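Q: How would the structure tokens look for this protein?
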Amino acid sequence: MSSSSLIAQAPTDEEDDYMSMTIAEPAAPKQKETYTQRRIRKAREAELRSRQPSKAELAALSSQNITAALSTSLPQTSKGFQMLSKLGYKPGSTLGAEGNPHARIEPLGVAVKEDRGGIGLDTERKRKFREEAEGEMERERAEEGGYRERVAKEREDRRTEGLVRGAMGVLEGFEGETDEESPAVGEYRGATEEEDFTTNSGPLKKKRRPTRQINFLWRGLVRQREEKERERRMRYDLLQSLSRNTNYEDPEEDAHDRQALGKEEEEIDEEDLELEEFNALEPAERLRRLVEYLREKYHYCFWCKFRYPDETMEGCPGMAEDDHD
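A: Here is the predicted structure in token form.
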């Protein structure tokens, strides 16, 4: 086989590889624009050409042009660049004496003033805005701190009120134990008024001690208990009266029942100025008086929960709650 035939059979770079050929999609035939479509297109183009841009669009376009002009370096074909080149300036170098550390490579920035305010007006506005923002932040911090303090005080007052009720209950127990005149001591420990006491002459119904004779330090506890009992009786008797004949006389009715049914007028409690004055005090002050009274009269420490044999109360850390931590 001759060499000319081998050369003819050898593939060349100019030949296309049919495996990697890409067949282009046939172009869609261009549709001819109708008269109506052409008329609509021309009307739309004429409308866009005649449309006047708004002030916002003009301001945005002007700002873009200024930004583009300032971000473009001085062209070498300008007279200014040619004058600087004759004086020895080269692109990328600084102006002025050589070795000056403060020499500028870039020119000063241009701040375009778009309003009619005088020089320094923007600085004054910024200062006022900054002062107002700082004042608002200080008010928010003060309000937040005041809110936290108020919530903490309310929480502490609720805890102290609970301690006051506990101290009243302790004092009620001591006052009941030392009361020898009235047989109604058990009532203030949860007994009812129908409880009987046995004496030499037979069973004797317990009489309730007048509230005014109770120590005002724990008199409020009795007042609350009486109010709850009165409300309970009124609700019960009201339900009973709906299904009871009004002419029926119940031999087991007491004064409270007759008052609830409207057969007798209820005794109105007089104003207790001593109790009102005590309740007007702060919870911490009321608790302090109760604790002090328990220590002085009964040698009992409310925080130790212990009654000491004498007034020295040896072993008690002190009268305050913090002393018992």
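The first strand starts at residue 196 and ends at 199.

Residues 1-8, 180-206 have pLDDT under 50 and may be disordered.

Upvote if useful.
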